[in-house]
Amino acid sequence: MIHITESDSHFAHLDKMSVQELLTGMSQEDQTVPVAVGKAIPQLEALIEAVLCRMQQGGRLFYIGAGTSGRLGVLDASELPPTFGVEPDRVVGLIAGGDGALRKAAEGAEDDIGLAWLDLCDRKITCIDSVIGIAASGTTPYVIGGVTKAREFGCLTGCVTCNENSPLSQAVAFPVEIIVGPEFVTASTRMKAGTAQKLALNMISTALMIRLGRVKGNKMVNMQLSNRKLIERGIRMIREATNISEAMARQKLMELGSVKKVIDLYRK
Prior knowledge:
The protein contains 11 helices and 5 strands. By secondary structure, the protein is of the alpha/beta class.
């Protein structure tokens, strides 16, 4: 059986198209992705609620994937400490082939069904942790092996995939299936499938961080003050929340190192 992610593009003779025709075709295909993600919201909600319960008990979240899927997981995890001020090991992205595979493809590593569990054990995984496997095809051995062992170990397991009823979906407790259809370039899942996975991971991690109290109102009050732009943003947040002067907001922010701490100080 040919999975939908492997099926023929709706567009023929790409090599004969002008640049404008190529861009128009890709844009038309990309516009279908948010609709597909929207249809998966019930599955996303179930997964997020389950992971949230584990994280509220101190559990961590692991993403595991290979190739584009693995890179997206590492990207999402790496953005959370500066954005929400969480510890770097609270959400961890693992890619088949290790960090070197982020820049140079290590496609053969995805066929090792036991490797992901070894990678998780290296991070001292516990039974209250959660593991989300990311694979557009839903057939990647690295990912399936990892979630299978994690589930046997007692971890909560989920996945983000772009095929229905895939081996990966069947291996986890909380599957998320985002069916985006054939790719513009046949089977090039770095395109629509990759975009769908990125949107889903944004939703998963952002919803978790908000529910874990890392956002106040609609502001990133726990962000790391790692550059001038973020410091100035923090000062604006403080002034909007407390009405203190810019000079005082800057002084207190530099003293306490946290937008949330300054706001909490002035609201007591």
